[in-house]
Amino acid sequence: MNKKTLVLGASDHPERYSYLAMNRLKAHGHEVVGIGKHKSVVAGEEILTEQMPLQNIHTVTLYLNPKHQQQYYNYILSLKPQRIIFNPGAENEELYQLAKQNNIEPVEACTLVMLSTGQY
Asked: How far apart are CA 15 and CA 101, in angstroms?
């Protein structure tokens, strides 16, 4: 099943986990959108630099440390995803609680591990 995913903290640096996530999500048949600091293309998808209105986002996967997440709180909640994945280093109790209050499942896990073990 295609779970349209927003990769927040997307990067075009091949050594970054967000880069690997965009490629692996695409390889697993998921539609992927990336938002990052710099315009670029990863996995054939343009990386956006602004908080664009997006439709049908199933999952937001975070590759930003908590202090860089705050500017995205309202945006993430406005997308009404079914879940937010807090990848290692992105754990954030404040956003975790906001997600729960908005009926969004918060998951502390690694997107890459979830994909490789069939838990995505």
From this structure: 35
Tokens of 86: 């807090």
Is the Cβ–Cβ distance between 33 and 4 less than 8 Å? Answer: yes
Tokens standing for residue 110: 């690694």
Give me the pLDDT at residue 40, please: 97
d(CA 23, CA 26): 5
The Cα 24–Cα 39 span in angstroms is 20
| pTM more than 0.85 | yes
The residue-averaged pLDDT of 20-25 equals 98
Between CA 15 and CA 110 the distance in angstroms is 16
CB of 110 closer than 8 Å to CB of 86: no
Q: What local confidence, expressed as pLDDT, does residue 2 receive?
A: 94
Asked if 9 contacts 33 with a C-beta cutoff of 8 angstroms, the reply is no
Distance separating alpha carbons of residues 60 and 7, to the nearest angstrom: 6
Return the closest-CA partner of residue 80 out of 64, 56, 62: 56
